[in-house]
Amino acid sequence: MDSFSKVISIRWSDLDPNYHVRHSAYYDWGAQQRVEVLNNLGLSLKVMQENHFGPILFREECVFRKEIHMHDEITISLFIKSIAEDGSRWTMQHILTNQRGELCATITIDGAWIDTQKRKLANPTPQMVIETMKKFPQLA
């Protein structure tokens, strides 16, 4: 698998007063895609709740390259940029391209897993996490 990709539906509420996509919509798209991908790989919110863990972000950065407008067809692709051997910490990157294949933005996040009861960093059910995270395509 080359990447986890999907076409984004741009909503009226995603626009700002300049009639292009507002900056915070990019972060919303990234978060939604990550939750959907984890769910599809078996790390659903229910599994995380039952095992008392969840993802936590240390950094989230978007680099804007090209404006996105209401009728653009945008594809967002998700990759693992780096991952600790035990799967406990990771960097993911979203790449957003338009219908012409032009780079519109990249979103980079650094994250880890948190024990939701202890409220401390943890490596939950290591084998499950490692196996799931290995299914992500690596960014070259």
UniProtKB/TrEMBL annotation:
InterPro entries: 4-hydroxybenzoyl-CoA_TE, HotDog_dom_sf
Organism: Fluviicola chungangensis
Protein name in the entry: Thioesterase
Molecular-function GO terms, alphabetical: fatty acyl-CoA hydrolase activity
SUPFAM superfamilies in the record: Thioesterase/thiol ester dehydrase-isomerase (SSF54637)
Residue ranges of the TM segments: none
